[in-house]
Amino acid sequence: MTHQIPRWPRALLHLLLPSSCALCGAGCPGVVCTPCRDHFCLPVTNRCARCANPLPQITSSPRRGKQSTGLFPPKFVESICPGCQAYPPSYEATICAADYAPPLDHLVLQLKFSARLPLAPWFAEMLRDAMLARPGLPLPELLCPVPLGPARLVERGYNQALEIARPLGRLLGVAVAPSLALRQLDTRAQSGVSPHERAENIRGAFAIAEPSLIEGRHVGLVDDVMTSGHTLEELAATFKRFGAARVSNLVFARTPPRERSGTGLGIVG
Prior knowledge:
The chain has about 270 residues and is of the alpha/beta class. It is built from 9 helices and 7 strands. The longest helix is centred in the middle third of the chain and has 14 residues.
């Protein structure tokens, strides 16, 4: 049957070059094995619907280490934290797949600095699952990766946010606009800036290449990690100034608040 021929090279490749789990090293057909995924990637449901900060007062997610059957996923409670109620951000929602904590933080660093690009589609799958855990959440009409500055893009050779956005767009059936947002200022890396300086460091950094694409639309901003949130806030505010109706953040990992005072884990902004 001719329609099955293209499947043979991929099947043969898996037989000749079996992959191993990026977390435990066990053999598995994908990037991360099912036991590690169930242990470390259970969806955290007690988060602020707007900024994804934890909400301890809400019923917590299932115990870590308990394998998920997928039959009864935990329910996300759409609640807003006191900070977002007092000072509403420019974005309406933040979806994240995991905390930026060991061992998943090492995978983020490998994608970001070691060009381990096969991790990006797996991050996208985890993000897709996190979005499905919030059934009432509207899908963006357009995905935009958080842009790198020209110098950093040349140095790294790729934008990890774009590497996540492309497979995520395919999974969600949403178009990706790789060059819609431009970083017009080559700012210092947020990880090298003290927490109280991060908002000023990123202010005015972004521009929109084609404002007509976003007017009246729901835009999803894609990135690997959200730490203080200043980068995504500045970018969301820029999109709103150019007419976006709604902005959602789609990030693989969210840095826990207790880790944001230092620079060891905070690698975004």
